[in-house]
Write a structure and sequence with these properties.
heterodimer, A: alpha/beta, Nucleotidyltransferase, domain 5, five-stranded mixed beta sheet, B: 132 residues, alpha/beta, six-stranded mixed beta sheet, 3 helices, 7 strands, 28% helix, elongated, cell membrane (chain A), protein transport (chain A), membrane (chain A), Biopolymer transporter ExbD (chain A)
Chain lengths: 145, 132
């Protein structure tokens, strides 16, 4: 008899496992939930109150010398007052547009009382800006020392 | 002898598409979200039609309806000191005043004057855009 070697069966080596994606998906989902929860969706704008970065202020100052400013007071109830008369925002818009037609560099000074609400000041500034006023200043009274 | 081909194993549902979707959502929320510190009290900014887009960054002073204040989300009784500390590091820093629409101006205007006197270059009032 010939000496036949025994038959050996080799188990195929299992395929090398890919890098598991499960951990990455977990991390992604956690990050996703985090950003969904912490995100805020307020649409906010801004109105500049102090802007000293541009040099146009000096040019405006030189050109406004010939145009007398218009003073708008804001009372405690939030209504704008011009020369002692309460004026509605729509009428203020018309008035400013009329004045701007004759003097485009019309300066507007707003003097609000301390107890007026922020919305009142913003509304008057908004009206002036929409009317086309480019030089709006908010002033306040200070006690003399 | 008839040999039958074994039916091909059905491919497992791919999770690559799921990962793609999750990734897109993640990037979307990262880009659109704002991580600003919110005020510890309710602040509803006034409405305006002519507001400009607000850049990110800067210091945020929140003013509540009754005059309570917070700088970058931290309540403080002396906001000017905190604001001036921030401006001392960089005078170009934008100071955003996020005031409640019903807050009285006596809380806000003196602060703006002090900031202007201290050399602040940019101070802005936060508003909510109103429909034209």
């Amino acid at each position: 008899m010939t000496d036949v070697p025994p038959l050996t069966l080799k188990r195929p080596r299992p395929a090398r496992a890919l890098i598991s994606l499960v951990a990455m998906i977990d991390v992604l989902l956690i990050l996703l939930v985090f950003f969904m929860v912490t995100s805020t969706y307020l649409d906010l704008n801004m109105i500049p109150a102090v802007s000293q970065n541009n040099d146009t202020n000096t040019t405006v100052t030189t050109t406004q010398d010939t145009t007398p400013p218009i003073l708008i007071r804001i009372g405690a109830d939030g209504a704008p007052v011009i020369r002692g008369k309460v004026i509605a925002l729509a009428d203020l818009d018309t008035l400013l547009r009329d004045r701007l037609a004759s003097s485009p560099t019309l300066p507007v000074m707003i003097l609000p009382t301390g107890v007026a609400r922020t919305q009142a000041l913003v509304s008057v500034m908004d009206t002036a800006t929409r009317a086309g006023v480019r030089n709006v200043r908010v002033i306040r009274l200070e006690a003399r020392q | 002898m008839k040999l039958t081909r074994t039916p091909a194993r059905q491919a497992p549902e791919t999770i690559i598409a799921l990962i793609d979707v999750v990734f897109f959502l993640l990037v979307f929320f990262m880009l659109i979200g704002r991580m600003d510190a919110t005020a510890p009290f309710e602040v509803t900014p006034p409405m305006a039609r002519t507001g400009a887009d607000m850049p990110a960054g800067g210091i945020t002073l929140s003013v509540g309806e009754t005059g309570e204040m917070a700088v970058d989300g931290a309540p403080t009784a002396d906001p000017l000191t905190a604001l001036l500390d921030g401006l001392a590091q960089n005078s170009e820093t934008l100071v955003r005043i996020n005031a409640h629409h019903a807050a009285e101006l006596r809380h806000i205007l003196p602060l703006i004057a002090e900031l202007e006197a201290a050399g602040a270059k940019d101070v802005a009032l936060v508003v909510t855009p109103a429909s034209p």
